[in-house]
Amino acid sequence: MSDRIRLGGMALANGVLVHGPTSWACAVRLPDGTLKVAARRKRLQAAEVRSPLLRGPARLVEAFSLLPLVKRALPEAKLPFERPQVVAAMLGTVVTSSAVRRSGLRPVAKELLGSLLSLAPAVLALRGGELAAYHGAEHVSIGSYEHGEARPKEHERCGSHLVGPMLITTAMARAAAERAPEQVRPAARAAAAFGALAASVETFGWMTRNPDHPLSRALAFPGHELQHRLGTREPTDEQLEVAEAALQACVELETE
Hints:
This protein is an alpha+beta fold. Helices cover 59% and strands 9% of the residues. It has a 4-stranded antiparallel β-sheet, sandwiched between helices. β1 and β2 form a beta hairpin.
């Protein structure tokens, strides 16, 4: 496994995006059944960021910066949050979370509930179409490549494992920010969000390096259950073919 390129990925409604340290590749299944692949070098490379405070935000920025590049190179790609129902859920979550934070609940309870509500758009996105199956295909292909043997539809580095750390760090950071003087509270909230993201990604990295530690297992449990029960489905051979095409194109570009 040490000689393998560390890969990440994202499931689309009709395909899979795979990315490595310097490159990305996306494969989609067109309505007529044909397979279409695009691969490019990354413009922003978060792997070069070494600061623990900046690594998490840099990876998030890198991931989102890929989406317009994917759409430009592969217009047929259907991104997870393109569906109108998901956009509506995102707007509804913003309104509901604001109402919760203005409620009379205790600060930590408000922040935990608000953080849980923020998962609604992702849950809704996974409930429609083939997204969950392509998510499973992404995990099977990347996991099998990394381990050199057939792997299940759940992956130990899936972003869903960030749920546990994010819920805890976000709730604590926001609760602390609310105690700041009113005149500096907006800045405190921004700093809290940034710090929570950075802490969550660093915690997630520790979890992947220490998977058997009791604390690591406890933090991974919510995300694993979300991944196992809702976030993934067993892929078909055709969906696995799409994921494998994206993986091979990415690896080829990385090893040139």
